[in-house]
Amino acid sequence: MASTITFIGAGNMAGAIIGGMIESGFAPNDVIATSPSDDVLAPLRERLGIRTETDNAAAVAESDVVVLAVKPQIMREVCEQMRDAVQARRPLIVSVAAGLPAETLEAWLGGELPLVRCMPNTPALVGAGAAGLYANARVDEDQRRLATELMEAVGLVEWVEDEALLDAVTAVSGSAPAYFFLMFEAMEEAGVKLGLPADTARRLAMQTALGAAKMALSSDKPPAELKRNVMSPGGTTERAIAHLEDAELRRIMGEAMTACADRAAEMADELGQR
Ligand SMILES: NC(=O)C1=CN([C@@H]2O[C@H](COP(=O)(O)OP(=O)(O)OC[C@H]3O[C@@H](n4cnc5c(N)ncnc54)[C@H](O)[C@@H]3O)[C@@H](O)[C@H]2O)C=CC1
Ligand SMILES: O=C(O)[C@@H]1CCC=N1
């Protein structure tokens, strides 16, 4: 039996997951997206053929899975407003919100609910997402499979058994597309300084990132060895890599990712304790 999956919130993340789901063959009629504004919903409805609803509780009343995809800052209010509908239906809850703990979300929704916390990323839109998932003790095997199926429709799924590790997942994949986009910006700017047209530099940098990722994923060699294979002794790459190592790229990445994970934990404190 097909499950009805409702997305509460229809912004960047929900749009990316829904787009990937439809692309991978989920029936548009089984998917509902909600938002207070029909202006947000209309393009999704028209582009993807999914159902939409401005009333969260009405959508929940016919759902088997409810994906919480609003900003963490308004999550409490949104959960409390649909608490009765959730308790009447008891669907599987999947939260994609950064930071917010499973226990807090479950309490805001009235308690005793199967809940999966998921940290996805926006490349889900092109079927190349990477998500970390954590299930609370009420999630049964079928629900675990359903959550896996939902997120595998848009990319890689890795389960973690310790909820705190989702902060690490946020640093490694949730926020990480932005690190690579920053790298693209920097490479394009440098390419232009070296004389290339901007669009040429951009295309070359992006294709190279795609190639490097595909190659690393399909190789049994570790990245360090693949890197060494590009570095001819006394050649150009060696010079570039030495510069990046001297500039302590590893330390900078470590600090940025620690800041990211710390912020996820901080958000849980800020938002969960109200
Ligand atoms: N953007 C990203 O790369 C990632 C975001 N997330 C998480 O996804 C969640 C959503 O983030 P974004 O999609 O970036 O935000 P967004 O601002 O693009 O989307 C939020 C959506 O919620 C809707 N909304 C506002 N009030 C509502 C209400 N009362 N009922 C229903 N919908 C309502 C808005 O219309 C908007 O469409 C956040 O909790 C964030 O932590 C997680 C991983 C990656
Ligand atoms: O920046 C954020 O808070 C969200 C969560 C992970 C990616 N975007």
TrEMBL record:
Keywords: Amino-acid biosynthesis, Cytoplasm, NADP, Oxidoreductase, Proline biosynthesis. Its EC number is 1.5.1.2. It is an enzyme of class 1 (oxidoreductase). InterPro entries: 6-PGluconate_DH-like_C_sf, NAD(P)-bd_dom_sf, P5C_Rdtase_cat_N, P5CR_dimer, Pyrroline-COOH_reductase. It is found in: Cytoplasm. Pathway: Amino-acid biosynthesis; L-proline biosynthesis; L-proline from L-glutamate 5-semialdehyde: step 1/1. The keyword RNA-binding does not apply. The keyword Cytoplasm applies. It holds the Pfam family P5CR_dimer. It catalyses: L-proline + NAD(+) = (S)-1-pyrroline-5-carboxylate + NADH + 2 H(+); L-proline + NADP(+) = (S)-1-pyrroline-5-carboxylate + NADPH + 2 H(+). Residues 4-99 form the Pyrroline-5-carboxylate reductase catalytic N-terminal domain. One of its GO terms (molecular function) is pyrroline-5-carboxylate reductase activity. Residues 163-267 form the Pyrroline-5-carboxylate reductase dimerisation domain. Belongs to the pyrroline-5-carboxylate reductase family. Catalyzes the reduction of 1-pyrroline-5-carboxylate (PCA) to L-proline. This is Pyrroline-5-carboxylate reductase. It comes from Halomonas pelophila. The lineage of its organism: Bacteria, Pseudomonadati, Pseudomonadota, Gammaproteobacteria, Oceanospirillales.
